Each structure stands twice: as C-alpha cells, then as structure tokens.
Amino acid sequence: MANGENKKSPKLEETMEGNILYNLDPIIMKYHYEIDYIHSYAQDSPFFAGLVKGKIMGTRCDKCNYGYATPKTHCMQCGSPTKWVEVPLEGKVHTWTTCYFGGEAFLKETPFNLVLVEFEGFDSLFLSRLIGAEQKDIKVGMKVQARFRRKSKFDPTDVYFVPA
C-alpha cells in the first residue's frame, strides 16, 4: 500500500453462537449436532398410521388372545404371532407420575404428567401424556380419553389423553 494506507482485512461475521467449554485439559465441550436421516417404523408402521387416522392400534395374540395396547409382533406370553386390532379411545389411569425434567423435546412443557392407561379388553398398559388435569386432581382409576394432534409428526406423542 502506498503512503502507509491501511487496508481493512476481511473478517468473518461474529455471532452469539458458540460452544460451552467444560474442561480445558483435555478439552471437553458441548456443541449442538443435528442430522437428517431416513427412518422406517417397519413392523410398527400400522401403529403410527393409526395415529394419523385418530386410532390407537394395538395387537392381539392369535393363540392365547392376550391384548397389547402397546403393540408387539409376537405374544410375550406364548410366542405366537399377533394381529393388529383397534384399542378403545377411552380408558382409565392405572398409575401416573409428574415429570419435572425431560428430554429436549419436552423441556418447554415441564412439569408434565405421564399416565399408564388401561383399556377394557387389553392386558397391557399404554404410556402417554395427560393434558388438562391439575396434579392434585389426577387419581388412579380416573377415566381418560385419547386425543390426537391435528398435524401428525408420526411420533408417539401424536396421541395424548385428557380427563373424560
């Protein structure tokens, strides 16, 4: 540069993004990682397709008639294949808990209530969220009814329960 003129060097834009350093020697840090991937629900596809249609799909053993509200391809009692069946949309609380911590998907919702729902004619329980009930009002035996997200995420959280 002539006559001592200073030319500005190009610089990268500074942002507020960064990593959290937990330790310097050795360096241990936390950073966000995200990836898109192709996923198949394989033999569980009818369960998720049912949620889109406002149905809970379970399975029933062909041999011993054991009913699974949470579907299984084979009976855990006798080992026989199961068939897909529709689960009632009304049930009752078998037990419940309030979660004060959760994974990233649920952080904004904490605390939230989880219930194990029992359905007439089914031998296993179904785990889901209970929405619209105060903690003090939740009781074992309380009747609940399934509700579904209007726009499915093809995710188990597409179904939740409310007091009946």
What does this structure look like?
The protein is mainly beta. It has one domain. The protein has 1 helix and 10 strands. It is elongated and about 85 Å long.
Using brief descriptors, characterize the structure shown.
3-stranded antiparallel β-sheet, 5-stranded antiparallel β-sheet, mainly beta, 164 residues, elongated
Draw up the topology in text.
Layout: E1 20-24, E2 27-30, H1 45-52, E3 56-61, E4 67-68, E5 82-87, E6 90-99, E7 112-118, E8 126-130, E9 143-148, E10 159-163
Antiparallel strand pairs: 1-2, 3-4, 3-5, 6-7, 6-9, 7-8, 9-10
Beta-strand percentage range? 25-35%
Gyration radius, rounded: 25 Å
The major beta sheet can be summarized as: 5 strands, antiparallel
Parts with pLDDT < 50 across at least 5 consecutive residues: none
- Strand order, largest beta sheet: 8-7-6-9-10
Order of helices and strands: EEHEEEEEEEE
Q: What is the average per-residue confidence, as pLDDT, rounded to a whole number? A: 91
Number of strands: 10
Give the N-to-C terminal Cα separation: 80 Å
Helix content: under 10%
The class by helix and strand makeup works out as mainly beta
Choose one word for the global shape. Answer: elongated
- What count of structural domains? 1
Number of helices, where a helix is a run of at least 4 consecutive DSSP H or I residues: 1
